Amino acid sequence: MNSKKNNLNIFFKALPKNIFSGFVVSLIALPLGLGLAMASEAPPIAGIIAAVVGGVLVSILGGSNVTIAGPGNGLVGVLLVAITTLGIEGAYAAIICSGVLLIILGFLKMGKLADFFPASAIQGMLAAIGLIILGKQFHIMLGNKLSLGGSIDYLLEIPATIIGVFSYQDSGLTFAAIAGVSSLIIMVFYGKIRNRFLQLVPAPMWIVLIAIAISYYYELVLQQPNPVSPEYMISGIPAPAQIINEIPVPNFAAIGGIGFWLSVLALTLVASIESLLSIKAVDKLDPQKRRSNVNRDLKALGLATVGSGFLGGLNVVTVIARSSVNVNNGGSNRSSNFAHATFLVIFIVLFSSQLTRIPLPALMAILVYTGYKLASPGQIKKLFSIGKEQLIIFFTTLLVTLFVDLITGIVAGVLMTFIIHVFINKGASIFFRNVLKPNVLMFREQTTGTYYVSVKHFCSFLNFYKLKQKLDDIPEDQDVVVDFSMCRFVDHTVMENLSGYQEVFLKRDGHFEVVGLDLHGTKSEHPFALRRFVPGLQKKGTTLTRRQLTLSEIARDFDLQYEPEKLVDAHFLDSYRFFSTKKIERVYNRLFTEGSSFKIFDVNYSEGEFIAKEEVKTTMLHLKLDNNIPSFTLDREGFLEKVTLFAGFKDIPIENHSDFTKRFYLKGKNEVAIKQFFTDKLVVFFESNPYYHIESNGEALLIYSKERIAGVKEIKSLIDFGLRLEATIIEEN
């Protein structure tokens, strides 16, 4: 069976689960679509139109697998400003133009756009959006419609609204507040209920069903009108036959004004960032761990936004909450996104009149809870644990967004991040000198198949895309070592993204390891904390890196002692030819036996001086033997070793082992003693194990594999190799 038929069979086999998943997602998308549209002061149907158009077009044309498209939480504040300043028809024109910009970004392969924004600044932006949503909708949730100035005014007025609830004279307002508070309670506590039958219907849909049921109870049983004040009931949902007739005509009259393009840019910025971050997050949830084509998704989202704008809908973005529900309910391909759009059409066609029975405060309660989740105090606690400087970036972005606007807020967050990085590094020269230089080298080691990625100079939100491009080219089921030993500064955004890569590689049976940060200082024990190279850092009390913590665990497993501190006395290496032309800077991260006859360590040394000076870090094994052995050097025979033969250097042959002589380059002064030392058993040992550079000074062996810091798996292999080699030498001598 060819792959095309096989893929088709897999698709149809998974179709029932995807249809069910799409149905569950539609139960959440229906109330959220209505609520997000009304929170933006757009017609309620606008949110449903965005979800339907997005679900159809993105499922057909998109590049992601399990994401759900529709109206996004993050756009509420921007849409509200656009509709207020441009009017509803002018706002639709801005939505269409933002969709065109998204398409252009997709063709320009700007899917890496989100990587240029610091993680804390993005969190500050999302928290500000959450507070804007919460501040505006909280009053409606309690039956108090207000018309104030900025977002801060709505937040400051919350205590007065809470107090005012207890003085309502109109019972309709009281019932509106009860509906809002009850819905908020459902949103908060529903997740704590552990009943699998109740959990089949998500909390927002329960709110809709209960609200409609109560409305019918008053009408049919009590024969009374709905107790909630009419102005706090959903209105403006046209009958299915009227939707096409009432499609608005976008007004492009303001296209020449700066206010119009500021709205377009704000819509594009938030839509692209929210979508790209959501796609990246959902890829981690995908059980099959597939990577989305983000540029293709941007083009599909842009086209869907253009279509939605012409039909009277909101911007279309990738939404994380509905996408995660999709994955959790068995969604495995884009058909679930299409199914969710189809069910929304069915709901509108069959139940549009029932939707007008839902109290507006009930839907606003859903958004208040959503806003709180975006601006949760837990975010502040997390950032504080990462580093106090992250709180400065977070609050700068948040406050400027609230007091000015979103674009200014995110720009302020980026600038504050750069200023903090300059302050930490005591100058901006490291950034200005190296920002345009290629700083990432990647190659695949032939002997082990490991992908080795070396990062130099600095790695921050300014140039992380260079590292990301390399990492995205590596299959997730492979072994990867990312080495920062030549990098002076690594920021929080990079550390957080690398953690995401580690999770993905782990789930795909790969191995992703970060090394070379043991000499980088940090003021926090959090693994995402930014790190700066500090000469002579290794002192007692220093916070251990993740690699060092793993090394301490390895030491326990192999009955070794572990000391991360810098070793001042490294004279035991002076007698080796390898170090005869090199200057040892420091030895650290030592795993050793009592008496130090067996020790593994990281060593930092330099070659040359002035302009030619080059620093190298590597991991070595020093094996001290009880008996004297001949001095020799054993290397894998390569091109350079063959050239040395023509230059007069001699490769010592081992009799009856021609294959060993071809594969290894063995040299030393006392040829007779060396031939006696290399017994049949020792030769077979070297032939049947991975290649290592081995040098003897007559009393001990110095063993290493590559001139770089070794990863955890490589250190375990080196320990095993050393222990077995030691046992073989003792047995043969």
Radius of gyration: 32 Å
Q: Kindly state the percentage of residues in helix.
A: 40-55%
Structural class: alpha+beta
Q: How many beta-strand segments?
A: 16
Strand content: 5-15%
Q: Given the structure, what is the number of helices?
A: 26
Q: What's the end-to-end separation, in Å? A: 60 Å
The overall average pLDDT, rounded, is 87
Spans of at least 5 consecutive residues with low confidence: 639-648
Sheet with the most strands? 8 strands, antiparallel
Shape by Cα distribution? elongated
Give me the side-by-side strand order of the main sheet: 9-10-11-12-16-15-13-14
In short:
The protein has 733 residues and is of the alpha+beta class. It is built from 26 helices and 16 strands.
If you had to describe this structure to a student in words, what would you say it looks like?
By secondary structure, the chain is α+β, with helices and mostly antiparallel strands. Helix content is 54%, strand content 13%. The protein has an 8-stranded antiparallel beta sheet. Strands 3, 4, 5, 6, 7 and 8 form a 6-stranded mixed beta sheet that branches. A hairpin with a 3-residue loop joins strand 15 and strand 16. Helix 2 packs antiparallel against helix 13.
Q: What is the topological layout?
A:
Layout (H helix, E strand, L loop, with lengths): L2 H37 L5 H17 L6 E3 L5 H32 L11 H23 L9 H6 L1 H8 L5 H19 L13 H19 L18 H6 L12 H28 L8 H18 L5 E3 H9 L6 H21 L4 H15 L2 H10 L1 H16 L2 H19 L4 H6 L5 E5 L6 E9 L4 H9 L6 E12 L1 H16 L3 E5 L4 E2 L9 E3 L12 H12 L3 E3 L19 E10 L5 E10 L6 E11 L7 E5 L2 H8 L11 H6 E4 L3 H7 L2 H8 L5 E4 L3 E5 L7 H21 L1
Parallel strand pairs: 4-5, 5-6
Antiparallel strand pairs: 1-2, 3-4, 5-8, 7-8, 9-10, 10-11, 11-12, 12-16, 13-14, 13-15, 15-16
